[in-house]
Design a protein that fits this description.
This protein is an alpha+beta fold. The protein is 39% helix and 9% strand. The chain is built from 4 helices and 6 strands; from the N terminus they run ααββββααββ. The two termini are 62 Å apart.
């Protein structure tokens, strides 16, 4: 609605300018100043219409891309994502770049154990248990704390590069290349 009003009100000053030009009054001081007032008026209204239209187009494309895979994931608290638990293991989701376990022990201290890639399908103890293989298939990317054995699923944004993880960007803006495996 705003769009139509803006366009119509934008055309009216232009008609006024056309009328002045047609009657040959553009050469007079009156006609010249009237045109100078009317032209910015119509400019502002057309700009308003243009911004309104652009906003609508953006809103339309926005709703299309909103259906990301994370949209239907249940998030209990902002920033904390929960992973589906296994019957015999505690499962967490790794934060971006996380390399150490942040599980708290019974004294409330952080575990700090190293997170290592865990190949559960060749793990003899896990072969007896089997719930990891049942939940994730034969060789999903899973990490395990070498201390408290908490399992970590990879961060959704992190790609599988190598076991050592991605090289971190240094303060000088240089990326340290990951070690060749
Ligand atoms: Zn741990």
């Amino acid at each position: 609605m705003m769009l139509v009003i803006s366009v119509v009100l934008g055309i009216v000053p232009l008609l006024g300018v056309a009328w002045i030009v047609l009657h040959g009054n553009i050469g007079t001081v009156d006609g010249l100043f009237m045109s100078l007032i009317l032209l910015p008026l119509s400019g502002i209204l057309f700009l308003n219409a243009f911004l309104d239209m652009r906003g609508r187009l953006k809103a339309r494309t926005g709703t299309k891309t909103a259906a990301s895979p994370l949209a239907n994931r249940t998030i209990t608290a902002p920033g904390i994502e929960t992973a589906p638990q296994l019957p015999h293991h505690k499962v967490k989701i790794k934060k971006a770049g996380q390399r150490a376990c942040n599980e708290k022990n019974e004294k409330g201290k952080f575990c700090g154990g190293h997170l290592k890639r865990w190949f559960y399908s060749v793990d003899l103890i896990e072969q007896d248990c089997g719930d990891a293989e049942q939940a994730w298939g034969l060789d999903a990317e899973v990490y395990r704390c070498e201390h408290c054995k908490t399992l970590y699923l990879p961060h959704p944004g992190e790609s599988v590069v190598n076991v050592a993880g991605q090289g971190q960007i240094s303060v000088f803006g240089l990326t340290v290349p990951p070690k060749a495996s």
